[in-house]
SDR family oxidoreductase
Amino acid sequence: MNRFEEKVVLITGAGSGLGQAAALQVAKEGAKLSLVDLNEKGLEDTKAKILEVAPKAEILLITANVADEQAVQNYVNKTVETFGKIDGFFNNAGIEGKQNLTEDFGSDEFEKVVSINLNGVFYGLKYVLKVMKEQGYGSVVNTASVGGIRGVGNQSGYAASKHGVVGLTRNSGIEYGQFGVSIKAIAPGAIMTPMVEGSLKQIDPENWEEVGKQFVQPNPMKRFGKPEEVGYLVAFLLSDQANFINAAVIPIDGGQSYKY
Ligand code: NAD
């Protein structure tokens, strides 16, 4: 499939995990890419992997903090200056934060997680949707989480921010559908990325792999998801094939969030 021939896709958190997987998939299908991350080395790693599978890909790398509104405006401007438009936006960068009971969670930690996961997504929407409205087309995928549609525990900041991402998705989808722009969210369960590895190490730094095996037992499919499985979903949702999917939240979790 070449669903992204002549299309420009902007991805935040592109230096690792789900952002990298989505970048690889849309690059294989012909996309020009604007890749944003705080981690410059991660971006270089993603670029090298893309060039292995799509040697002709045009790639712009932008080191930026999505929690900084000015930096967000800047990455959107640079993308438009370089490629002239934005067809797809994967608004994905995020962190988990330290796990703790609500009373011990810490106000600074709460603010940090919310500023990246929620403010960062809001700023991205604010500047990208203005561009897409003027174009009269575009597709946005925000990364929420099962922690944005269910209670997980020990994750005040994450839960608040990811439920907020679901709210932003529904709100902006209702607003921008009339301009030919669709906005959706994905709600991944546990997908084996560096973030989840870090999360398991918070539980037991020595035996985190064993913790992981126990962790997936309640999942109907008894395994972690793979980043490329999320990449396939995001590519579909960003493509023209998914234009009429709007303001929707799509779980990708082996069915776990539907289990009683
Ligand atoms: P990851 O840690 O592998 O990748 C996240 C990337 O975001 C990293 O490259 C990191 O440098 C970047 N980033 C972090 N803070 C940033 C900031 N302030 N500005 C710019 N870039 C920043 O994690 P992942 O698993 O790929 O997570 C991607 C998204 O998916 C996150 O929003 C996460 O909450 C969400 N998610 C992941 C899972 C999972 O199981 N992996 C499940 C549900 C939701």
User: Anything to note?
Assistant: Strands lie at 8-12, 32-37, 59-63, 88-91, 138-143, 181-188, 249-252. The chain has two domains: 8-189+227-254, 191-224. The mean pLDDT is 98. The pocket of nicotinamide-adenine-dinucleotide is lined by residues 12-13, 15-19, 37-39, 42, 65-67, 92-95, 116, 143, 145, 188, 190-191, 193-196 (CB under 6 Å).
